[in-house]
Amino acid sequence: MKSIKPLREKKNTAILLIHCPDRQGILATVTEFLNKNNGNIIYLDQYVDRAQKVFYMRAEWELEGFAIPAAKIGEYFDTLIASKLEMNWRLYFSEDIPRMAIFVSKMSHCLFDILSRYTAGEWDVEIPVIVSNHEDMRPVAERFGIEFHYFPVTTENKEEQEAAELELLKQHKIDFIVLARYMQILSKDFVAHYPNKVINIHHSFLPAFAGAKPYHAAHERGVKLIGATSHYVTSDLDAGPIIEQGVTQCSHVDTVKSLIRKGRDLEKIVLSNAVFKHLQRKVLVYKNRTVVFN
Amino acid sequence: MKSIKPLREKKNTAILLIHCPDRQGILATVTEFLNKNNGNIIYLDQYVDRAQKVFYMRAEWELEGFAIPAAKIGEYFDTLIASKLEMNWRLYFSEDIPRMAIFVSKMSHCLFDILSRYTAGEWDVEIPVIVSNHEDMRPVAERFGIEFHYFPVTTENKEEQEAAELELLKQHKIDFIVLARYMQILSKDFVAHYPNKVINIHHSFLPAFAGAKPYHAAHERGVKLIGATSHYVTSDLDAGPIIEQGVTQCSHVDTVKSLIRKGRDLEKIVLSNAVFKHLQRKVLVYKNRTVVFN
Amino acid sequence: MKSIKPLREKKNTAILLIHCPDRQGILATVTEFLNKNNGNIIYLDQYVDRAQKVFYMRAEWELEGFAIPAAKIGEYFDTLIASKLEMNWRLYFSEDIPRMAIFVSKMSHCLFDILSRYTAGEWDVEIPVIVSNHEDMRPVAERFGIEFHYFPVTTENKEEQEAAELELLKQHKIDFIVLARYMQILSKDFVAHYPNKVINIHHSFLPAFAGAKPYHAAHERGVKLIGATSHYVTSDLDAGPIIEQGVTQCSHVDTVKSLIRKGRDLEKIVLSNAVFKHLQRKVLVYKNRTVVFN
Amino acid sequence: MKSIKPLREKKNTAILLIHCPDRQGILATVTEFLNKNNGNIIYLDQYVDRAQKVFYMRAEWELEGFAIPAAKIGEYFDTLIASKLEMNWRLYFSEDIPRMAIFVSKMSHCLFDILSRYTAGEWDVEIPVIVSNHEDMRPVAERFGIEFHYFPVTTENKEEQEAAELELLKQHKIDFIVLARYMQILSKDFVAHYPNKVINIHHSFLPAFAGAKPYHAAHERGVKLIGATSHYVTSDLDAGPIIEQGVTQCSHVDTVKSLIRKGRDLEKIVLSNAVFKHLQRKVLVYKNRTVVFN
Predict the structure, then answer these.
(1) How many CB atoms neighbour CB C148 within 10 A?
(2) CATH assignment of D13-93, given 3.30.360.10, 3.40.50.150, 1.10.3720.10, 3.30.70.260?
(3) Helix locations, chain B, DSSP H
(4) Burial C204-239 (b: 16+ CB within 10 A, else e)
(5) Do the beta carbons of residue C14 and residue C66 sit within 8 Å?
(6) For this chain's UniProt record, which GO biological process terms are given (chains A, B, C, D) (predicted)?
(7) Are C86 and C74 within 8 A, CB to CB?
(8) To which H or E segment does residue C228 belong?
(9) Beta strand pairing status for D225-232 and D198-202?
(10) Local structure of C80: helix, strand or coil
C-alpha cells in the first residue's frame, strides 16, 4: 500500500556535493562549469569554514538540456575541475531513489513515524527491509508490507549475525541504514561498511547523558529540558557527527515515565528530520562535524 | 493488532473536575471530603482565576479503600458539597475507557500519528470508527483494522449526511471526536451534540491565518515562524477554546510546499498532545478559554 | 562611557547587496568580478526565489589588495555588471559605522537592552541621539551620555513635530531609526524619508493581534504562546516586512500583567536581533518580504 | 536613579514554603489553618513527588484581616502543624524586600540585564553592592549608583579575600548572591554561608560542557543547539540544583565567536528568569533538585 498520495515533486536533476581546501575562485569555477554546459541551476548553497579553510558546496541542476550526458558528468567534472582543486566530491541523480534499511528493537514510535511518511510518499526512498533483534515489530512490518528479518544477537553470535545482516543488506542493495531506537551496539566492522551511512537517534541532548538510560539520568539530575540527537554512527559510541537536535521543556512534575513519553515525540521528529536531510543530499561530513544545508 | 506493548499504568481511580465561584475554604472542603473517606489522593491540582473569581480543580484518588462506593460518589459529593458551593463538576473513572471517533479527509499525517499511538497502547482510548468525506484513507483504516465510513458531503446532502454520522457515532457510543485535518465544516447542530468534545487541529498560529490556506497566507506575509493550534470546535469557525499551540521556524528559503511539509509535523504533534490532555481529563473550559493542568 | 570592551572584529571590507531578475550565470559573473580583481571573499551567500524568479546575493570581501580603489568600486561594478543585469544593488564599507537614532516612549526594557549592547561595544554603530514623546526616559539617556530630545506629539502639532524630528535626524546624519516601543504612529511622510530604515518591535506574533493592546487581546483569546515581531515600518500599520519573530509559552495561569512581563524579554531580544541583522547588512527587502542571510 | 516606574503590585502578604514527608490530609490541614484564621489565600500551589513520597507547597495570603499577628504566625504554625508533620518550612513577608549582591568579572551582559530590571522596578529587590575580581565593571556600577568593591583573587589571598567579601555582605545584610558571569570559583566555606542562596549562570546546557570554555567545546563537538543553565551553587562545581535552562539554535555557520554572541542573550535571560523565580519564593530545593512553582 505504498504511496497514498506523493508529496514530492518529480524532477530529473543532478546533485553535486563538494568539499575541498578553500582558495579563490572555486565557486566561480564550478558555477561557470555548470553554466557553460547549459546546466539550469535550481539549487546552490555553499559555505566556507574560515577557521579550517574548507570550502563546502551543494549544487543541483536540471539534466534536461545539460550539454554533458549524465553518465559522463562525473568523469568530466573530475578531469576538468575536481582533480585540480583537490576536491572531495560526490555526484547524485534525483532519479536514483536511495534504498534504506530500518533497524529497530521493541519500540514502535520511530518506526511508525518513518513508515507513515514512506506510505504517504513524503520521501524519495525505498524501504525494502526491516531488521530487528526482537520479534515485537514484525506485525508492524507486515502491516506495511515490508520484509522483516529477526536477528537475535548475543555476545557469542554477534559476529555471525552481523555478517548475515550485511549479506541481507547487500542483497537488497541498501544505501544507508536508520537505527529507529535499535538498542544494540553495532561493531566497528559493521559500521565500517557504511561510513556516515548509519543514522542513529539518541534519546538525549548529546553530549549530555550519552550511553544507557538517559531519561533516568536526566530525571536524576533535575534538568528543565530534555533532548534528542540524531547523528551518524561511528566506532565511537554516541560520538558521531550530529545532524539534528531538538529539546522540549520538562519540570519537577515529570516522572521518568513522563519524560520517556515526551521524549518519544522528540525522538521521532528529530530522527525523521535528519533522515530527510540525508535523503536530500544536504548533509556533508568533515572532521566529525556536519554541514547541513537548507 | 491493538496494543503492541501498553505504556500506560493500570490504575483504578476516580477523577473529579470542578469549577465554581471562588470563595474561602473550597480546597479545604474538597480535600477534607476525600481524606475523611479514606481517598488516597494521587493527583491534585487547582487554580484560581483572581480576575474572574473562579476556582478550578482536578483531583484523582484511588477507589480501593475509598469509603464511598463508586456508584454513590457523585450523589454524595453533589449533596454534601457541590450543590452548596454552586459547583460545575464532572466525575470520571479511570476504568471507563473513552471512545473516540476520527474524522479525516485526504491527508494521512495526523491519522497515522494517532493510530500509531493507539496501536502502541500509548493512550487509554478506544477508536472504533473512522469517518471521512473521501475514500483516500480507507486503506489506512483497514490496515489498522478500524471501521471506515465514507460520507461524501455536498451542500445538498450535508444535513442528512451529518444525521447519518451522528447515528453512527451513537451506535458506537462515541464520547468525543478528533478532526485529524478534516476539511469540511461541521454544522452548528452537529457541534451542539458534542460541546467541547470535538477537537480540531488548525494549521496556523491562531488567531493568525484563520480560515483557508493558512500556509499560503503565511508565505505571502513573509512570517519567520509557522504554527499549529488545537482547539475545541464551537459554532464559531477557528474561534473555539485553544488547548495547545506550537510553532516552528521558517525563513525566506521556504516555499509554500516546504511550509506545508514542516507544518505537518507540527500539526500532528500539537493535535496528539491536545488529545492526550483531553484523555487525561486535564482540560477544563470556561468562557471560551481552557485551563490545562499539568 | 562608550565601549567597555569591544567584541567586534575590526575589519576593512566591502559589502555588496544585490537583487535582480534571475538568469543563468549571475553568480559566476559576480564572483568572477571579485576574483579577477583579487578580492578575498570572506562571506558569500545567495538565494534564488524560484517562484518570483529573483536572485539575491550578499558578498563581503577584503579591501586590502583589491585591485579597484574603494571609491571606484561602485562605478566599475555598475558599468561592468549591474546595469547589464538590471541589478538593484547597494555597496557598503565596514569602516562606515552606521548612525542610529532611538525613538522611545515610557518603557525602558528595549532601550536598556540596546544601550547595554552599545556600551559593551557589541555592535558596530553610533547612537548620537534618542527621541521621545515623553520625558520618562531622559534620565536613562543621560546616564548613558546620549543626547535626549523631547517632542510631545498631539494631533495638532504632529506635522511640525515630525518636521523638527527630521531636521534633528538630518543634523545627526542618522542612517536608520529603531522604535524601541515608541507608542506613536509615524506619518506616511515621515516614513517616506526612511524607506526600510525604520525598525519597529510589535508586541505580538504578527499578523495576530496587530494594533493596540495585543497582550490584552492574547489573554482574552486564551492563546498558549505569545510572540513579538520586528519589522520595517511602512505606511501600512504593523504590516511592513518582517525581519524577526519570537514566541514564548504561556498558560491559563498568566494574567495580562504576567504576559506583559514575559513579553518584555521577548520584545527586547527580537528587536535587538533584528537590529543586529540590519547592522550586518544581511537583510534585503523585496515585495514586502525580507531575505535575511545567516 | 532607582525605579523609573515600578511594575510590581504592592501587596502585604505572607508566603509559606513547605516540604515534608507525604501523608494524607496535609493540604487540608494547612488550608484549614489559613481559612479558619481568615487568611485570604491569593496563591496556592502544591506538588507531591510520589516516588520520593515528599509533599511540597507554596501558599501566599493577605496579612490584612488575618487572625494571627505577623510576628506570631511562625510560632503558631510550628506548634500547631509543622512540628507534628515533620515539616521543613520557611515563612516570608512580601514587605521584607530581599537584599541581593551581584558578583561579576569582566562581562557586562548579565550585569546590565539585572540592573536594567532593577532600575525599571521590575523586581522587588534591593541591590546595595556589586563585587568583582576585576575593575572593568566599576563604571557600570557607578552609572547605576551602586557601591562597587574590587577583590582581586589569587590562590594565595583567596581565603582572606573571601573573608573580606563575607564581611562586606554581612554589613549590607545580603540575603542572596547572583553570580553574573563571575569567573572565579567560590570556596566550599564561602558557599556554606549561603546554602541555596548563590545563583550562578553556566554558559552551557548542563550537564553537557561543564567546566571551562563550553562554547569552544560545543563548537568542537558540532552541536546544533547551545544552552545556558542557571543553578544554585554547591560545593560541587556546576552540579548544583538546576533552576532554569534555555537553548537556542546554531549551525555549521556559527564560529566560536558567534556562539559566544548568541549565548550572551541566552545567559542573561535564563539567569534573570531564575533570579525572578527565586525572588518570588517559588523555588524549593530537595535532594539537589528544584521544585519551581508557576
Answers:
(1) 18
(2) 3.30.70.260
(3) 26-36, 70-77, 109-119, 138-143, 158-171, 188-192, 214-221, 256-279
(4) bbbbbbeeeebbebbbebbbbbbbbbbbbbbeeebe
(5) yes
(6) 'de novo' IMP biosynthetic process; one-carbon metabolic process
(7) no
(8) strand C225-232
(9) antiparallel
(10) helix
CB B133 within 8 A of CB B152: yes
- Give the model confidence (pLDDT) of C157-211 as tens digits: 999 999 999 999 999 999 999 999 999 999 999 999 999 999 999 999 999 999 9
3-class DSSP state for residue D198? Answer: strand
* Catalytic residue, candidates C113, C175, C238, C254: C238
Distance, CA of D129 to CA of D146 (rounded, Å): 6
CB D131 within 8 A of CB D179: no
Nearest Cα to Cα of residue A179 among A171, A190, A167, A164: A190
Q: What is the C-alpha to C-alpha distance for residues C273 and A97, in angstroms, rounded to an integer?
A: 41
> Using CB atoms, which residue from C221, C241, C253 is nearest to B222?
C241
Does residue A1 carry a pLDDT above 50?
A: no
Mutation target among D252, D257, D273, D287 for the A interface, most CBs of A within 10 A: D252
Closest CA to B178 of B215, B125, B217, B222: B125
Give just the sign of the alpha carbon dihedral C180, C181, C187, C192: positive
Q: What are phi and psi of A66, to 5 degrees?
A: -75, 135
3-state secondary structure of C171: helix
- Among A46, A55, A223, A231, the strongest candidate for a mutation testing the D interface, having the largest count of D CBs within 10 A, is A223
For C61, list phi and psi in degrees, rounded to 5: -140, 160
Contact assignment for B116 to A109 by CB distance below 8 Å? yes
Q: How far is A114 from chain C (nearest CA, A)?
A: 29
Does the beta-carbon distance from A112 to B119 stay under 8 Å?
yes
Taking the CA of residue A145 and the nearest CA in chain B, the distance in Å comes to 10
Does pLDDT of D8 surpass 60? Answer: no
Tell me the pairing of strands B99-104 and A88-93: unpaired
Mean pLDDT of chain A: 95
CA distance B37 to B35: 5
Q: Reduced to 3 states, what is the DSSP secondary structure of residue C118?
A: helix
Domain parsing of chain D, residue ranges: 13-93, 99-292
CA angle C60, C61, C62 (to 5 degrees): 140
Distance CA C46, CA A45 (A): 7
Q: Which residues of D touch B42 (CB under 8 A)?
A: 50
In the predicted model, residues of chain B with pLDDT beneath 50 are 1, 3
Write the single-letter amino acid at A70.
A
Per the listing, cell 499551540 goes with: B245
> Using alpha carbons only, what angle is made at residue C286 by residues C283 and C287, rounded to the nearest 5 degrees?
140
Contact B40 D46 (CB under 8 A): no
Share of chain C above pLDDT 70, in %: 97
pLDDT band at A190 (very low <50, low <70, confident <90, very high): very high
Residues 6+ apart with CB under 8 A from B65: B38, B40
Q: What is the pLDDT of residues A50-97, one digit of tens each?
A: 999 999 999 999 999 999 999 999 999 999 999 999 999 999 999 999
Q: What does the alpha-carbon distance between residue C109 and residue C93 come to, in Å, rounded to a whole number?
A: 31
Select A99-292's CATH number: 3.40.1080.10, 3.40.50.1970, 3.40.50.170, 2.40.70.10.
Answer: 3.40.50.170
In percent, the amount of chain B with pLDDT more than 90 equals 95
**pTM of the complete model:** 0.96
User: Which regions in chain C score pLDDT beneath 50?
Assistant: 1, 3
Distance CA B46, CA C165 (A): 53
What is the sign, positive or negative, of the torsion defined by CA atoms of B203, B208, B211, B216? negative
Is A112 within 8 Å of B109 when comparing Cβ atoms?
no
Q: What is the ipTM of this complex?
A: 0.95
